[in-house]
Specification:
Strand content: over 45%
Helix content: under 10%
Number of strands: 11
Distance between the termini: 40 Å
Shape: globular
Radius of gyration: 14 Å
Length: 128
């Protein structure tokens, strides 16, 4: 059974910080890049950040670059999304997901269709 369990999120004032976690079972996690996506009210799900298995490749959406940091601890099978300087525009349900591809430890992608398993989603609400 493939599982990505998310935690973190909640309500924060503008300018504040939150950290999201995505914990996976071993077979789910090993060798795979992980990405974060978000879906705001009435919007499509958009790419936020991605990190390769090695951690050596990271990608960010322009809207979060310089404010969000993606990282991973492979020993704990966990990926993190540190979110700083939050604005009301960051309000959304955030999802982590596994890149289906395996083999290149430096591979990562912004492309949603490359992700096969998704976390349950966690709400992030930023008040003005």
């Amino acid at each position: 059974q493939v599982q990505l369990a998310q935690s973190g999120g909640g309500l924060v004032q503008a300018g504040g910080s939150l950290r999201l976690s995505c914990a996976a079972s071993g077979r789910t996690f090993g060798g795979h890049a992980i990405g974060w996506f978000r879906q705001g009210p009435g919007k499509e799900r958009d790419f936020v950040a991605a990190i390769s298995w090695s951690g050596g490749t990271t990608y960010y959406a322009d809207s979060v670059k310089g404010r969000f940091t993606i990282s991973r601890d492979n020993a704990k099978n966990t990926v993190y999304l540190q979110m700083n300087s939050l604005t009301p525009e960051d309000t959304a349900v955030y999802y982590c997901a596994r890149d289906r591809r395996i083999g290149d430890p430096n591979l990562a992608t912004r492309m949603g269709p490359e992700y096969d398993y998704w976390g349950q989603g966690t709400q992030v609400t930023v008040s003005s």
